[in-house]
Specification:
This protein is α+β, with helices and mostly antiparallel strands and 243 residues long. The chain has helices spanning 38-53, 68-78, 98-119, 122-128, 139-142, 168-186, 200-205, 236-239, and strands spanning 2-5, 90-95, 145-152, 154-156, 162-164, 189-193, 211-220. It has eight helices and seven strands.
């Protein structure tokens, strides 16, 4: 089946399912912020780093089903991401139906073959070579859950007029990062998949033209014999400058 989950429904919206009306926003005291002693802050920061440092991209998945309540809570976490004017320009489609996963795999592999055989620059193929990737994407069928993430380029204001979403891509990127981290924290493995172009997702999943596919997230348990490349991450000094 295809399950639609829209974090905007957790906000007060009018009967036309329009964007949250920021013109009516009211301000309330900040009651959710917690400050910790410095020693505890350091401990929490270290523990969080160690937790996310275990995350690895997985390409070999088990077909074990995933508890939908876990997915929903991770999606709720994604819906807390900051966004331009709080318009929350994202939509997530959770796919578990085998037939729809098969359709997505078929369409994705068409684009992947075109990419690997004709469009990909030589330098990019050389960068991908150590990872052993190719146009064959069996994980799109094997993994129990796919989450298609869409950017809503525009929406509807409370009076029914079209409203452009600013910083939509940045906002959805932030939400996707929280989602990936939440799924990892819950004990699931993920793979970020971005065949290009991804317009087939609109057609297969019945999404409107104001939405553009951003990412196809593969979610599940690693296969019992799953392997990952023996690669490392940059050190802090390699990607941080202090001035």
């Amino acid at each position: 089946m295809v399950d639609l989950w829209d974090p905007l429904t957790t906000n007060i919206r009018d009967e036309r399912n329009s964007e949250p009306d920021v013109s009516r926003a009211k301000f309330v005291p900040l009651s959710t912020y917690r400050e910790y002693p410095v020693d505890e802050m350091r401990q929490r920061a270290t523990e969080f780093y160690r937790e996310v440092n275990r995350r690895r991209t997985v390409r070999e998945f088990s077909d074990r089903p995933v508890d939908r309540a876990v997915i929903d809570d991770c999606l709720r976490a994604a819906g807390t991401a900051p966004s331009g004017a709080n318009l929350q320009p994202w939509h997530f489609v959770v796919v578990t139906d085998p037939d729809i996963k098969r359709q997505i795999r078929g369409a994705a592999e068409v684009e992947e073959r075109e990419f690997y055989e004709h469009r990909a620059p030589k330098e990019w193929l050389e960068a991908l070579e150590p990872l052993g990737t190719d146009s064959n994407k069996p994980f799109l069928e094997t993994a129990p859950t796919l989450i298609a993430i869409f950017v809503q380029n525009s929406g509807r204001s409370p009076d029914g007029t079209s409203m452009k979403h600013y910083y939509a891509i940045e906002s959805v990127g932030l939400a996707s990062g929280i989602l990936i981290t939440g799924l990892h924290h819950a004990g699931l493995a993920t793979l970020t998949h971005t065949p290009s172009p991804m317009g087939f997702l609109n057609e297969i999943l019945g999404r409107p033209p104001n939405e553009r596919p951003f990412l196809l997230l593969v979610v599940g348990y690693p296969a019992a014999d799953a392997e990952v490349p023996d690669i490392g991450r940059k050190s802090l000094d390699d990607y941080v400058t202090s001035v």
